[in-house]
Amino acid sequence: MKPSFYVLVVEDNPDVLDSLTLFVDALADAKIFTASGFLDAAAIIKEQPRIDLILCDVVFREEMNGIDVAELAVKLHPNVAVVLFSAEQKSEVEGLYGRYSFVRKPFGRDELNRHIDKAFLRLRPVDEQLEADR
């Protein structure tokens, strides 16, 4: 049976990556791809015909960052929902993620769930968003 949901989780801390993967696995019937940085994520984004959601840290040890992952993903998968997260202050990354949801580390399951919902809502046309809010 095919999964109903395709998720890419990008995080360079193995413990956080494992926790996020367990969270997503419990959330939905999902095929989960994991990456520890930009290069791994880019390969998955280019290879996979479908990605519905990306959960991605903003800061990596590499030159490229989570914003770069998000921009590549949106370019190749225009309907992907993106949630970025970081321990950095929101103001330090604000303006870089116009269509992405952002959550500050540390965060809990409920908060991440809200941001995932927000990320999918951002993909809907404005008139549908207004209707959903009623």
Tally of DSSP β-strands: 5
Main sheet specs: 5 strands, parallel
Average pLDDT: 85
CATH architecture: 3-Layer(aba) Sandwich
Domain unit count: 1
What is the H/E order?
EHEHEHEHEHH
In angstroms, what is the radius of gyration? 14 Å
Poorly predicted ranges: 126-134
Strand content: 15-25%
End-to-end CA span: 36 Å
Multimeric organization: single chain
Q: How would you name the CATH homologous superfamily?
A: Response regulator
**Order of the strands making up the biggest sheet:** 2-1-3-4-5
Helix % is 40-55%
CATH class: Alpha Beta
Describe the protein's architecture and organization.
There is one protein chain. The chain has a 5-stranded parallel β-sheet with strand order 2-1-3-4-5, with helices on both faces. The chain has helices at residues 14-27, 38-47, 66-76, 90-93, 109-123, 126-133, and strands spanning 5-10, 30-35, 53-57, 81-86, 101-104. It has one domain (5-133): Rossmann fold (3-Layer(aba) Sandwich). The protein starts with a strand and ends with a helix. α2 packs parallel to α3 (66-76). 46% of the residues lie in helices and 20% in strands.
